[in-house]
Amino acid sequence: MGITSNRAGPGVTQVTIDFPPVNAPPVQGWFDLASAITAAGDDPETRVVILRAEGKGFCAGVDIKEMQRATGHDALIGANRGCAAAFGAVYDCAVPVIAAVQGFCLGGGIGLVGNSDIVIAAQDAYFGLPEVDRGALGAATHLARLVPQHLMRTLYYTARNIDAAQLHHHGSVYEVVSRDKLDKAARALADEIAAKDTRVIRRAKEAINGIDPQPVHRSYRYEQGFTFELNLTGASDEARDAFINGAKNA
């Protein structure tokens, strides 16, 4: 369990998220994910990274229970910095990152997928930001990379989800496959990229990031500032407590 890396084939490194039951990594898990992705990109033998997950869903975001168990603001600060590190590692990875998504992709999962280079999704995959229902803000930066502006705002304000087929329609999901073919589809695309001259692909990644109109690091940190403000008002604790109590009673 946790974050693991393995060589999935020539030039392909696979990084796997595995935090049962819902892949909501604790604070350290986000930093471990950032380290694994950065290390993969820094490895000259790696030409492509596949980011995947075990279990029924890709990622449910941060571990809210860890945050509510903690005293003070260390867990909140840790989660925010950990997410920023992991999202940034995906974006800054020296080689292309393919996200292979099944089931739920929520909260922090959107940050990972939104910063990936390519997204392949299972037919059962769905994506959303429940942040406003949890007393937090963040990852609108990354949702805006997946859907048009007005749709992003609708999804953000309502905390509704959008499925893989809809994202495929918008062009942000490259391919939708049955769940049993997800890893195979991600690997096939990774192998195609890995067969190319890695010197060119690495420069291509750097060049594409360099012309990106959205400053993803800065805009996400800007969003996080409002989450801290909501925590100071008490709104965030109330929302998180309501979520945890609701989960217990479900």
From TrEMBL:
Gene3D superfamilies registered for this protein in UniProt: 2-enoyl-CoA Hydratase, Chain A, domain 1 (3.90.226.10)
Keywords: Lyase
GO molecular function, a single term: isomerase activity
Annotated EC: 4.2.1.17
Entry-linked SUPFAM superfamilies: ClpP/crotonase
Highest rank taxon of the organism: Bacteria
Family statement: Belongs to the enoyl-CoA hydratase/isomerase family.
NCBIfam families xrefs: PRK07938.1
PANTHER family attached to this UniProt entry: DELTA(3,5)-DELTA(2,4)-DIENOYL-COA ISOMERASE, MITOCHONDRIAL, ENOYL-COA HYDRATASE
Identification of the protein by name: Enoyl-CoA hydratase
Species assigned in the record: Kibdelosporangium phytohabitans
